[in-house]
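Quick one, tokens below:
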């Protein structure tokens, strides 16, 4: 699962849909791999406005990546330093994959297992019924 993907995921338990604590999901026991990809600055520039930057910073820090800028880049690097920052973001968001571990909801604590890079978002029946039926 690419790190970029996590920025678009929230807890599947219905009771968590209105809770700010359900996003981002937090990695635990994560096994991370780097898979090299061609650098695509156009894609990065187009995806940056859609990213919740605070969530990117949180998730990156949980995985040990502490060099994420505190403010979201504008996607138009002018200096060599800004170009390098965009390449670093490419590495973090597109080349970094969580292969094993779990993601945990900060609201309800539900754990979503990750196996071979794929997260399981299917809820057990008791959770689906417990949280989806009124009163």
């Amino acid at each position: 699962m690419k790190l970029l993907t996590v920025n678009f995921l929230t807890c599947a338990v219905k009771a968590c849909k209105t809770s700010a604590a359900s996003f981002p999901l937090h990695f635990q026991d994560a096994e991370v791999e780097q898979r090299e990809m061609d650098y695509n600055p156009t894609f990065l520039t187009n995806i940056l406005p859609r990213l919740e930057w605070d969530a990117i910073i949180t998730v990156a820090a949980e995985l040990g990546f502490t060099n994420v800028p505190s403010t979201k880049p504008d996607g138009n690097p002018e200096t060599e330093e800004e170009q390098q920052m965009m390449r670093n973001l490419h590495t973090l968001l597109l080349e970094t994959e969580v292969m094993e571990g779990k993601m945990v909801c900060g609201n309800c604590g539900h754990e979503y297992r990750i196996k071979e890079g794929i997260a399981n978002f299917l809820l057990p029946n008791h959770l689906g019924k417990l949280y989806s039926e009124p009163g």
